[in-house]
Amino acid sequence: MLTSILTILARKESLSMTQLAHKVSCTIKEIESALEQMEHMGYIRRELFGQACSSSGCETDSCEGCGFASSESFAVWVLTERGQAIVGSNPK
Questions:
Q1: What pLDDT, in 10s, does the model give residues 32-64?
Q2: Among candidates 88, 1, 6, which has minimal Cα distance to 43?
Q3: Is the pTM here over 0.90, yes or no?
Q4: CATH no. for residue 8?
C-alpha cells in the first residue's frame, strides 16, 4: 500500500483523502496512518497552504491552535528525495 500511495503522490494529482483511499482500496483512517508513517520515515513531507496566523508559535509545525485556521487552509503531501527514489524518476 505504501508504494502505491507514493506512486500516486509522484503523479502530483490533486486528490482528496477519500479519492486517495478509493484508489488504493483502503479506508481514510488507513490512508492517514500510512501518510503519517511515510512522513516519519522521510518519504514525504506535508506542505500547508492557505491562511496562516501571525502568532509566533504558528510559524512552525508546533502551532498550539490559536483558532485562526480556516477552511481556506489545506495540506499537500510532497515526495522527498527519498520518496522519489522509491518510485523512480518515471511514475506510472
A1: 999 999 999 999 999 887 765 555 555 555 555
A2: 6
A3: no
A4: 1.10.10
